[in-house]
Amino acid sequence: MKKGLILSASTGAGHNKAAMAIKNALHEKGIQAEIIDSLKFTGSAVDLIISRGYEKTAMYTPKAYGKVYRLYDDCKITNTEKKVSMFFAHMKRRIKKLIATEKPDFIIGTHPFPLMAVSTLKKKGAIDLPLVSILTDYTIHSTWIESHIDKYIVGDEFVKQLLIQEGVHPKKIHPYGIPIEKNFSKCEDCSIKEELGLNDKFTILIMGGSFGVGNVKKALCDLLDSKLDFQVVVVAGKNQALREKLEKISQSHEKSKDIKVLGFTDKVSELMSFCDVLVTKPGGLTTTEALARQIPLIVPYYIPGQEEENLDFLLNNGLCLKTTDKYSLKILIELLIQNPERLERMRENLKLVSKNDSAQQIASMLDEMI
How far apart, in whole angstroms, are the C-alpha atoms of residue 351 and residue 75? Predict the structure, then answer.
């Protein structure tokens, strides 16, 4: 049986979700794949510093994260060996041993750090395997660009153009879309709607990512100032403190609006299937899931860096609205409720950009390559 390695990392949930979607699509083709969290695999200290460091920085000092992101991108460090020797020499050694043991037919990376390591091994002749990079945002960063990557899978033709501008050969780039699970392109039975006791009225879904980043509390309070009739579902992710704050708001406000507060849930696809608007930060996977569900977005918060650039992509394609000091979330929601034709226009734009079968296309491509 053909088999491969999918190298991911837990800096947010998106890289692992993309990896799982690809693994499932490969399984349908009869191809075995193992997902490796490259940071945990390298060592607990590396994982703690990078994964947990990303989480805490994104939550408490997002501007600092944005500065580091831009600084490293602006450096345009194209020498792979320098990048790897600075941070990931140990990762390279561990991955080399893993490849020797598992003997995969191909390697996929959904995070740039392990791709740096594997690209170096290819350059030195230590391995000779197809190497596929899965960009999980609607933008590029210098860390993704490596000379020994055979294929780049990107979310849109816009991103393909950015890679070409940085010198990547067009034949290497495939704008299949960011891979997500198949259930986001299926019709759901909406049983969760009944379970939550929601009515058939305008419904707003508020999310802040897997660990509840962004001023979700402010977003909810802003919506509650509106006199219009709608209901709200808020997902706090793994942030228990945020969930408790949201529940207090839900319990204390005047019962003019139905509010349902959830923690971490695997029912996002079902929630998106019946909600009318998604209020969220523009993470790559969340954005792709919204595209598949054709649910218009409003972005009141984002992590500077790749999410800021994802927002540029959304705005350039007419897929979202962005709050400002004057255009508050309350005003934008009221605008969409009172002007449903604008909401429908956004849905049509989402339909044009949506790519729902990326994982299946990746699996077919790999089946032909190996």
Answer: 37
CA proximity to 229, closest of 112, 318, 347, 334 = 334
Give exposure, 248-266, as e/b (b: 16+ Cβ within 10 Å): eebeeeeeebbbbbbbbee
DSSP 206-264: EE-TTTT-S-HHHHHHHHHT--S--EEEEE-TT-HHHHHHHHHHHHHS-TTS-EEEE-S
Backbone angles phi, psi at 78, to 5 degrees: -95, -10
| Contact predicate 22/111, CB 8 Å | no
- Judge contact between 121 and 96, C-beta under 8 A: yes
**Percent of the chain surpassing pLDDT 70:** 88
Question: Is the four-CA dihedral 362, 365, 367, 370 of positive or negative sign?
Answer: negative
Burial 19-30 (b: 16+ CB within 10 A, else e): bbbbbbbbeeee
Provide the mean pLDDT of the chain: 89
Do 66 and 308 form a contact (C-beta atoms < 8 A)?
Answer: yes
What's the sign of the alpha-carbon dihedral 148, 150, 152, 157? Answer: positive
Contact between 148 and 123 under an 8 Å Cβ cutoff? The reply is yes
Is residue 297 a contact partner of residue 290, using CB atoms and an 8 Å limit? Answer: yes
Q: Which residue type does 313 have?
A: F
Q: What is the pLDDT of residues 246-296, one digit of tens each?
A: 999 888 876 678 999 999 888 999 999 999 999 999 999 999 999 999 999
By CB atoms closer than 10 A (0-12, 13-18, 19+), residue 71 is exposed
Taking only the tens place, the pLDDT of each residue in 132-162 is 999 999 999 998 999 899 999 999 999 999 9
Task: Please report the domains of the chain, with CATH numbers, ordered by start residue.
Answer: 3-178+356-369 (3.40.50.2000), 186-353 (3.40.50.2000)
Angle at 72 between CA 174 and CA 171, to 5 degrees: 15
Q: Which residue has the higher pLDDT, 239 or 298?
A: 298
